[in-house]
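Bench notes, bay 3.
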Amino acid sequence: MTNSMDKIRRLPCWKGAVDPQPLGGGITNHNYVVEDQSGKYVVRFGEDIPVHHVMRFNELAASHAAFEAGISPEVVFNSQGILVMRFIEGICFDEVAVRQQHNLERILPLLKRVHRELPNYFRGPALVFWVFHVIRDYVATLRRAKHQPHGAGELGWLLEMAAELETAVGQIDLVFGHNDLLAANFMDDGKRLWLIDWDYAGYNSPLFDLGGLVSNSGLGSDSENWLLEQYFEQPVTDELYRKYAAMKCASLLRETLWSMVSEVHSDIDFDFRQYTRDNLVKFKQQLLAFQKVSK
């Protein structure tokens, strides 16, 4: 951490001396708040993370595009492994906030803008985030690891379930997805919502963002049905719901495997082992629900 803070202090973008302060909450990057004579900024410090398919050139391009689309704060400087953005005075949502109907009514149009408008501003090479490829690659990474994380004994079965879910999803529409819709990535400044953290951005099915939003914040069935009908602007057919339910399962499986890999490879101070346990339970519960609607 000291080395990171020294690097931040030496960045040429500051006006005057700065004293970086750690910013909690991140479980992929080390984040800091920096204030200089011109204002207040957030600094995200992290190199490429190939085991998680995080490539910083892609995060940078998505962050620029999200700013141009009016979705995310401005990037004012970047260097290798460092991203400096304007600080937003606001509150990050938690799961309870996401579940409130009036907030869902604000989140939905923001998500549609990500999917439909952000590609108009994205420049340069773009990644594809296909969750089933990510799952297969995570399993291969875990099988090569010397240290086996919680749940590693179930990798074969998890891979079989992923194959069944991929078949159930079938053909998809393609949009530009955020692909990491944790509650804390929504910020409310009192006037509007912002969506932050574009580490996993890339082209994907809209079903993945919808399923991740629902599963990450524990939305109830009424809210889930409202979200789907409003997103697709029509009643949801049984076929579409099965495809969506399969993708929601896949989003939980990916989060579980992400945590397993992080147990082995991450240096972030976070209880990944417990996070793995929690998400594995959620995945198994959702898998049972999916199997019921698929009969």
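Next record in the batch:
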Amino acid sequence: MSTLFDLVFYVTIPFWALMIFAPAWRFTRLIIGSPWIVGAPLVIWALITVPILGDLWSLVTSPSLAAITEAAADPAVLAALWAQIIAWDLFLGRWVYLDSRARGIHPLLMGPVLVGTIMLSPIVFPVYLAARELAGRASTADSAVTQADPISA
């Protein structure tokens, strides 16, 4: 179980590395453009989950803090949860990367955002959404000034 736990993160590293260290490389956009990049961690999730599917099914159909706390003592349950988190973070990071590229947000700003997404996506994702909103407003204001002022155009 420990090997699968470790492996699930290692199979995502190449994708994170492309988004963080080679964001403008044409193959990065091609590779990250596919939602199937989350396939490897999901396969590992399935390998972990199939033997404990009955236990997990009861947890998700009748969730309670006590039941989840008890189930967390099982390394397989924790490994499955970890694999799900890693797959979700990669999917979310993929979306952030693609969105930032479409909006023209500088890669030097996005590198720390993507690292933050790996570490603490529930905190960093709303920060990214707020930052892109502010950047969008500033961009709209700049283009409105440029269009209204023929001298600066």
